[in-house]
Amino acid sequence: MSTTNSLSSLTGSLANTGSSTGTSSFGQGINVQQFVQFALAGQQANITALQNQQTSLSAQTAEITKISSDLSNLDNAVFALKDPLGVLSSQVATSSNSAVVNATASSSATPGSHSITVNSLATTSSYYTGALTTSSTTISAGTFQVKVGSNAAATVTVDSTNNTLSQLADTINNQNIGVSASVIQDSNGYRLALVSTASGAPGDVTVSGNTTGLSFTKAVTGTNASLVVDGIPISSASNTVSNVINGVTLNIGSPSPSTPVTVNVNPDTTQVTSAINTLVNAYNTVITEINSQFNVAADGSGGGPLETDNSLREVQSQLLGALSYSISGNSGIVNLASIGVNFNNDGTLSVDSGKLASTLSSNFSAVQNLLQNTTTGFSQNLSTVLSNINSPGTGILSLDSQSLNNTSQGLSRQLSDLQAALLVQQANLTTVYSRVNTILQELPLLESQISQQLASVK
């Protein structure tokens, strides 16, 4: 009797213990999966911690990639100012009367003022024929010669294959003799028009030796443009005149023999202003992104993935130093502030448009020297700093990214090892707890059998 009571007591104790760990009572066994999870909780916590570290490293790497891309944009903006053939060498030509003379300037133009008088425009030579009733009216067979400028005369033959105006126009165009042929229509009927493909005297057209039924009339004689540039008489076969003023192209639109036109060539301050604003915007994008990594509130909130990254703090310091760069002398144009580009409290820049415009207008050469001097210029210095920061393989950010990548690879190996070990432990523990579960499920039957045996002993 005492043995039976003892076994019952033990069974109850096991049942109570089991209920707190996944076992409700004997016979139902235990929750094997839950027991395995409890046993492996420590190892899983270690794996989760490593995974969290990897997530953090990925966020840091992504942020470095973004900042590196922004720095590349800044480097492009710097190059636009550093390039000796870039915006600082650009010139603009302005005309006092663009209807008479419009002008464009290349970077090779020399600043200065020029006086231009347009006496006459270049004309394009042309001929037309007498009117026919229709464009398909038959033309008598024959020939005529077309001569353009000093070129040899070309013979045009009319026969049964091209004895309409449309067919004859096609024949002339296919001969490539320096004229463009077309059929025109007005109230008088249809006529063949011949227009020289070259303007001025070199393109003057002459039609001779005509034995066809067509009559030819010269509409316009090809003549050269006549103009006076800085007191020098100029004859031009085209109304676009190049190479008279170095680096400047003149487009003459109408004659004005009695009124000279003034063309001024000056540095293109509009392009320079745009390039400086582009530089400021590109820099502000970079420094704002970097600053955001370190903007941590008093309660510890805020900041970015790189808030503890000392390499990024070095980048921030170098950028601020490069944008504060100064030279000496140079008529007082010694740094960005002297041309109207000023620091804000947060390290970003703002442009005083009025001061920048005034400085570019009054002392362009000093601004150019500040920005573009090949040894001491602002752009050269900033370009060097950016190379030190962002060069692939050797730059501060590149090395920082490589370090993060190496750490991430090490974590991946640890994770792989831990996860492999966890799988083995999980399999072993599942086997063990499954056996326990089987035993617990069989206990009621065993208890019943023992009780029956004990009862029979009585």
Provide structural commentary.
With 458 residues, the protein is an alpha+beta fold. 47% of the residues lie in helices and 21% in strands. The chain has 10 helices and 17 strands. It has helices spanning 2-19, 32-39, 41-82, 165-175, 269-294, 310-323, 353-362, 364-372, 378-390, 396-457, and strands at 91-95, 101-105, 112-120, 126-129, 142-148, 154-158, 179-186, 189-196, 205-208, 216-220, 225-229, 232-236, 240-245, 248-252, 261-267, 341-343, 349-351. The strands form 5 sheets. Strands 1-15-3-11-12 form a 5-stranded antiparallel beta sheet, with no helix packed on it. A 4-stranded antiparallel beta sheet has the order 7-8-4-10, covered by helices on one side. Strand 11 and strand 12 (232-236) form a beta hairpin. The longest helix has 62 residues, at 396-457. The chain starts with a helix and ends with a helix. Mean pLDDT is 87; it is low at 1-24.
Outline of the structure:
This protein has 458 residues and is of the alpha+beta class.
